[in-house]
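Appendix B. Raw example, untouched.
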Amino acid sequence: MPVLEAIYIAPARGQPMQRVERVVAMAGQGLVGDRYAAGLGYYSGRYDCEVTLIEAEVLESVAGEDHLPVLEGQHRRNLVTRGLDLRSLQGQRLKIGEVLLEYHRPRPPCDYLQRITQPGMTKALGRGAGIGMRVICGGLLREGMVINVEETASFTRWLP
């Protein structure tokens, strides 16, 4: 069963990510206290970047196989999931408690990540660096919550 393993926010661009046990997601904005919800993120105004997700398993793989540990929050993603293949979510929504997130786009690793970690990090993360999602319905997110996958109506196949 997929779960929300960790939550991170950063108050402004370039500031370290801070782990929090709970956070409020706001529809059409992002997470309270995070740079993107406040319009202060590097990609604010250029890309829809309300909430970003990364798999715990990807971080563990990079640390184990590539010997490149990603320290607390250095991944620059808001939500760390476990038991969920994020790359398979195109056209789907995630329901976490009362919060509804909708897939937006892949989020490849950026050059900033490479600068704050170590050489080879962006290559090691590659396509597993996470995804961006939009907040459709807001509410409270807490670490340990179960994640449910829902298909969106626009991607539903109707039989004749």
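End of appendix B.
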